[in-house]
Amino acid sequence: MKKIVTICVLAVMMAAASARMPNPGWRPLHGGPLRAGLVVEADNTSPAAADKAKTCEHVAFTRSIKYGDSDRNVLDVAAADASDGTPRPVLLFVAGDSFSGDGIQADADGSLLQQAMCFAAQNGMVAVSISYRLAPTASWPAGAKDVAAATSWVHQSIDLFGGNAQETVLIGYAAGAFHVASFLAHREFQADDSDIAGVVLVSGLYHAGTDASDSERSYLGTDASKYNDRSAFPGILEVDVPIVLAWSAADPQHLVAQGEKLKAQLCGAGHCPRTALLTSRGSPASVFDLDGSGDSLAQRTRQLLSQIEARGLP
């Protein structure tokens, strides 16, 4: 995986606001016609959607774009108009609270994603969030392969939205963090055009054990002897891009232990990540510093931003 320059911002410090949906004549902010396979779908204009939209002014959302063969392989893009036309960094979200489902993804809090995408777009980035295949219909390594397919889509098409594929930051949250970590750890799942430049892992599982939950077993299989080969270790220890690692004091104890173990092993491998112990997992206000508590990912991601920007200096 090439070392490439990026900006990594996961600190969602602004409230979410009014998503300006594309009209029938809409074209990508970068200019030019839509490529085949890009589908624009407007949100339902319900009162709840209108309320949620109030703080996302000047941000255009493009919904349900296909990035793979499955019905689950769809993504949303959020971007604001760039007056100078300069390609912008890309924030790619992979979030979900469960490995399994009945066809409706158990996403991490939708307001969190909405706020994250609005924040990114309003602060000079292009935001992408994906849905991925779920067990039992799709088992390991479907999630990692979907991450690879989504990053390939970014490399092939994000220029249409004003994004710079060479400055892509991958965000994994909850079950999504496992899929991101698996994508990083197992290079055989990566494509030639799926390079990324920075990683944020939040409240993830990185190695399942004999006490795996039903949801985890549904995805990883019932044979626990295969879990070592299907974990993020040791491959993730060889990742050479900057990492921010976070977990919450409100997480189940086994997830806290997972975060602590990953940090210790990365540090032991000479690749110590920036870390954050969050006071709350369920409240976007405290996790992303909306309440000004200061105990969030904001400081870590700002530091990572400075680190990666410095790489681009001559």
Describe this structure in words.
The protein is α/β, with parallel strands linked by helices. The protein has one domain (19-24, 38-311): Rossmann fold, CATH 3.40.50.1820. The chain is 28% helix and 19% strand. It has helices at residues 47-52, 110-122, 142-157, 175-185, 214-220, 253-268, 284-287, 298-311; strands at residues 19-20, 59-66, 74-80, 88-96, 126-130, 163-174, 198-202, 243-248, 274-278. Helix 3 (142-157) crosses helix 4 (175-185). The longest helix has 16 residues, at 142-157.
Lay out the secondary structure.
Blueprint: E1 19-20, H1 47-52, E2 59-66, E3 74-80, E4 88-96, H2 110-122, E5 126-130, H3 142-157, E6 163-174, H4 175-185, E7 198-202, H5 214-220, E8 243-248, H6 253-268, E9 274-278, H7 284-287, H8 298-311
Parallel strand pairs: 1-2, 4-5, 4-6, 6-7, 7-8, 8-9
Antiparallel strand pairs: 2-3, 3-5
Helix pairs in contact: 3-4
